[in-house]
Amino acid sequence: MLKKNEGIDIAQELGGIQNIEQAQALFEKRLDKEQLSRIRTLSRPDILIKIANAIAMCDPARIFINTGSEADRQFIRQLALNKGEEAVLAMKGHTIHFDLREEQGRIIDRTFYIANPDEKISSLANKSLRDDALVEVREKMAGIMSGATMVVGLYIRGPVGAAASNPAIEITSSAYVCHSAEILYRNAFADFEKEVDRLGHFYTNIHSEGLNRPEDLPNARVFMDRSHRTTYSFNCTYAGNTLLLKKGNHRFSVDKAVYEGNGRELAEHMFITGIEGPGGRVTWVAGAAPSGCGKTTTAMAGNHFVGDDLAQMWIDENGSVRSINPECGIFGIVEDVNGEGDPMLMDRLRNPGSEVIWSNVLIDENGVPQWTGNGETLPTRGRNFQGPWKKGLTDAGGKEVKISHPNARCTISSSALANYSDKAEAPEGVETRVITYSGRDSDTMPPVWAAKNSDHGVVIGACIVSAATATEVGASGVKRAPWANAPFIPGALGDYMKAQFDFFGNTGIKDGKRPILAGLNYFLTHEARGGNGKKLLGEKKDVKVWLGWLERRAHGDVDAIETPIGFIPRYEDLKTLFETLIQKPYPKNLYDRQFSLYVDNILARNELQTTAYGKEENIPRLLFDVLQEQRDGLIALKTKFGPIVTPEQLLEGA
Q1: At a CB cut-off of 8 Å and minimum separation 6, what does 201 contact?
Q2: pLDDT digits (tens, 9 = 90+) for 478-530
Q3: What angle do CA 248, 253, 255 make, to 5 degrees?
Q4: Are the C-beta atoms of residues 551 and 303 closer than 8 Å to each other?
Q5: What angle do CA 400, 404, 408 make, to 5 degrees?
Q6: What are phi and psi of 625, to 5 degrees?
Q7: Among 293, 328, 410, 463, which one carries the catalytic annotation?
Q8: Catalytic residue status for 293
Q9: DSSP secondary structure of 192-237
Q10: Contact, 532 vs 471, CB < 8 A?
C-alpha cells in the first residue's frame, strides 16, 4: 500500500524551509513588492512552504507569481520570445518551439519513481530509492535557476468544483512550459486554496531546463515522488518531460484512484467525446490508446469534443459513470493531420483566430508550419527540429531527414474547436456510456468489438498490444500497452487491475447506466487480411462508423454476432452507418476481411498476455479465467471452421 508523506520530502530537505514563518521571511527577502503582494493573498502553510522550498532550492534571480490575468499571460508569452524558447510565425498568435534534436519525446530511460524501501513499483517502470534520488536532485537541481526567472502557477486539473479534479502547482524557469500550461490547463489562482480545502490535497511540479544544451541531456532526469506528490524535472525541454501537470500528475492521479478511490474512481489515458445518435441524443464515449495512436483523431470524430488525452472518472450518487477532462487544451501530434481526416482541427491550424504553439514541425521560408502528411504541397526547404532543412537532406547515417519529426505537435485551446462542448467545464462531468481501448495493431483484432460484460471489457484494456511510436525516445517494435496507461501506472499492475475490475463491476452503477466496454482497431493492413501492402484496410474517417455502432449498441438499437472475444457488428448495420454517417459505400467483401477472426493470431495474443501476466505478482485470477474462456472458445471455432472464421460461419455456429 502506498503511504503518503513517507520519508524525506526532498524539496524541504534541500530548501530548508520548515515552517510558515521561515517561508514568509524568504518571500520578504526574495520577492519584489508586486509579487509579494500576490503571494500574500495565499494563506495555507503547506502551499506556501512548498513554494518557498522550491525558491530556496533552485535559487532563481527573479520570481513571478502568475495570477492567470491577461497581462500575466502576455508577460509569459513575451518572456518565451525574449528567451528564444519560442519565435513568432507569420500567422498572428502562432509561435514555434524547437526541442533539442536528441529530446523529441519522453525520456523513459531517465524517468524514475522515487521509492521508499519495500514499496512496490510497476514492473514496467524505473525506480530510484529516495536516498539516491536525494543525491541526484541535490547535485543537479540545487541552484539550477541561478540568473533565471522562476514562474509559479496555480492550476486545477479539471473543472473547479468537480469531484475528481486535482489542484497542482507548476514551478518552472521555462517560459515555454508556462505558456503551454496556460493553454492546456485552467489557471485557478483565485480558487486554488478553496479547491485544496475541498479536495484535501495538491500536487507540486518543479522544473528547470537548465542551460538547455545537448551535452546536458545525459544528466536530464524526471523524478516523481509518489509519497509527497511532487515531481522534479531538469535539463530537458520536451513538454512530456517538463510540463508535469500532464503525465507526471496523471501518474499521481492514478495512484490516488487505485489506493484511495475505493472502487469508485479512475484516472485514465483516454479521450472524451460525444456521439449524436438517433433522435438527437448524445452518448458520451471515453477511449484509451497509447500516445501517437489516434486519440485526437478519434476524439475529433465525435460531435461534441471534451478532451483527447486524459480522463478522470467516478461513480456518482445517482449510479452513473461520470468523466471530466483534466485539461482544457490539446497537445496533439500533427503527423498525418490533414483536411480530409481532421477537417475541424485543420481549420484552426490553418486559419487565423487561435493561439497555437507549434513544436518540431518545419517552418518554411514564409513562416508557415509544414509537416508530414498534411495533404498539402510541401516546400523544399525551411527549418525544422534539427536545424536548416532542404529536400533530400540526410543524417550522419545516410537516412533521409523528414520534413518534420514524427512527434511534432500543436498546442491549442479546446474551446477553439468547432465541435467543442461547453460540457467540458461542467463540474458534474458527462455521463459515460461507452469505453474503448485501442492500439496500433496491424494484424490481429477486428476494427470494433464489444465485450460480453464488464470483466471481459477490463481484459480488453489489459491486453492492448501496440507498435511503438515516436512519443518515447528510443522505443521500437511491438509491445504490450495495458490500458494504454502502462507508462503512467506507478504501483503494481495487479493493484491497478483490481481497481479496474472493482470500478466497472461496481454494484453502485445502476442498471441501464453501466458502460459497454469495447475494442477499437483501425490499423489493420491489407497484407494482414489477404491483400498486398501496408496501407490501412480502411480510412481514418471510418472511426465515425465504429463509434456510431457502439453508440447504438449501448442503447440496444443494434444486434450483434457473438464470438469468443465479444460481440462484432452485423454487416447490414455497418452498411447503413457508412452510408448515413460518412456517405461512403461499404462492400461486403471489405466487411468479411475486417471482421473475420484470424484465430491463430488471436490465440498467439492470448498466450502472450497469459504468459506475461503470469510473471506478475497478485494479478487478479479473474483475468486468467477470462483469457482461458476465450481461448477455449477460439480453439473450438478453429476445430470446426479452420484458422480463419468468417462472420457467416459465426452466425452458423450460433
Answers
A1: 166, 167, 229, 256
A2: 689 999 998 899 999 999 999 999 999 999 999 999 999 999 998 999 999 98
A3: 100
A4: no
A5: 140
A6: -65, -45
A7: 293
A8: yes
A9: HHHHHHHHS--EEEEEE-TT--GGGGGG-EEEEETTTTEEEEES--
A10: no
